[in-house]
Write a structure and sequence with these properties.
Blueprint lengths: L1 H12 L2 H7 L5 E5 L7 E6 L5 E8 L17 H4 L2 H18 L7 E9 L10 H8 L13 E7 L9 E8 L1
Parallel strand pairs: 4-5
Antiparallel strand pairs: 1-2, 3-6, 4-6
Helix pairs in contact: 4-5
Length: 171
């Protein structure tokens, strides 16, 4: 009997009441690098936080008014360089987050896939990606930053794309 009472008490603490008490800014803790840098060392998400996982997003065409081309005919010129594509992708992520009640400040983790740029001999443009990243994180509008992994990949879904980003947000 004592055992079942203890179990019931433990289950009660993990139910909706516990979620309500853990919700709020304290539900997410950002762990800065030492010395502090552009990205975090890690993030702790406590019970009660709501987490949103976004699938990988790709850049939008530079000219949305241009007549659509078949995907096989699209090139990097249709989407821009690595920096331009990074800004486009993060802009898409910002829009998707807002539609679900989140902000860029709620993003806790990004996984960034960068294809090699033919103009750079097949090397990824890490500096260009970081320049685009800095327009969304560590700014006056969004002083927070994220845990992040950046990986050079052999290719993305089409040779026209240089950047794909997955995002995780929590609040």
């Amino acid at each position: 009997m004592l055992r079942s009472t203890a179990l019931a008490a433990a289950l009660a603490l993990t139910g909706p009441a516990a979620a309500q008490t853990a919700a709020g800014p304290e539900a997410v803790t950002r762990h800065a690098n030492t010395p502090p840098g552009m990205i975090l060392q890690g993030v702790t998400v406590r019970p009660g936080a709501t987490t949103l996982y976004l699938s990988g997003q790709l850049a939008a065409p530079l000219d949305p008014a241009a007549p659509p081309k078949p995907p096989a005919q699209m090139t990097i010129a249709d989407f821009g360089d690595t920096k331009t594509q990074t800004v486009s992708v993060l802009g898409k992520i910002k829009t998707i987050l807002a539609a679900r009640g989140y902000a860029m400040a709620d993003v806790i983790k990004l996984t960034v896939f960068v294809a090699g740029d033919p103009k750079l001999g097949g090397r990824m443009d890490f500096a260009g990606m970081n320049d685009g990243f800095k327009q969304f994180f560590g700014t006056a509008d969004n002083p927070s930053t994220v845990a992040r992994s950046t990986v050079q990949v052999a290719a993305l879904v089409s040779p026209a794309f240089l950047v794909e980003i997955e995002a995780t947000a929590a609040k």
